[in-house]
Target: Amidohydrolase
Amino acid sequence: MGYVDSHTHVWFREAITEEMRKRSEIVGYRIPEFSLDYIIKEMDNAQLDYITIIAYPSRELWGIKEDFPLKIIDVCKKYPDRFAVIGGVEVNKLSVQETKIWLEKQYEAGISGFKLHPPHMWIKPNDYREEEKGMKQLEILYEFSQDNKLPVVIHTGTSFFLTARNKYADPIFVDDVAVDFPRLRIIMAHAGRPNWVNTAFQLIRIRKNIYTDLSSIPPKRVLEYLPRLEEINEKALYGSDFGGPGTKGLGDNLREFLNIPLSLLAMENITKNNPRKLIKTLG
Model:
């Protein structure tokens, strides 16, 4: 059984629009455009059984709308067992009815889960609550995911992009979601790094339905951020963030991670077992 990378930004050139290319120049980060054959070769060399592609909509940052996950899925159909695709709906831009329509469309296409990016969307994960914004669209996203047994990946920790509002990146707002939707599987991306790692760690410990992926944390610094990672090894997932700013290749990042001094069981859980329990492939 090979490894699983639970968080990448592998975007294929067939799905990239001219608007996305122009916007990437504005934000100062050129979107990598990968070919399917290249990624499959890299995965084979790294002994990766499958990778998860994060393909959430972001109009302000990339000019991406809710059809983007469908485009990524279409490219991946040649190797459905090698890819999982995390989609999403930009609940702050859609009506209640539009939210329902796009959730259904992505679900019918075989989506593996949904992504919420609070710093890019300028909302808190608990903004569905009446004492917050009472955002019905966000509640619908969680209910739909819970009912269909799909995980929701929520970005926690800072984002360096110019349009990001990092006050929304605190993982404490995820606590309400875990309590209000007890059957929802929540994956806190990036473990709150760098500012809120302690908060993220405690929530992972006390809430049965909160997990974390370790993407975008340099492997050599993982235990610096999470010295008690061994204690939550059944609730942590390996991820590289490959395709994102400053990340190494699929194989290079994985090889560095495998050198972290963890028990064999913990390493097996984080890089193989846990991802398979939470994130299904397209096939």
Summary: The longest strand covers residues 48-54. Strands lie at 3-8, 48-54, 83-87, 113-116, 152-155, 186-189, 210-213, 236-237. Residues 3-278 form a domain with the TIM Barrel fold (CATH 3.20.20.140).
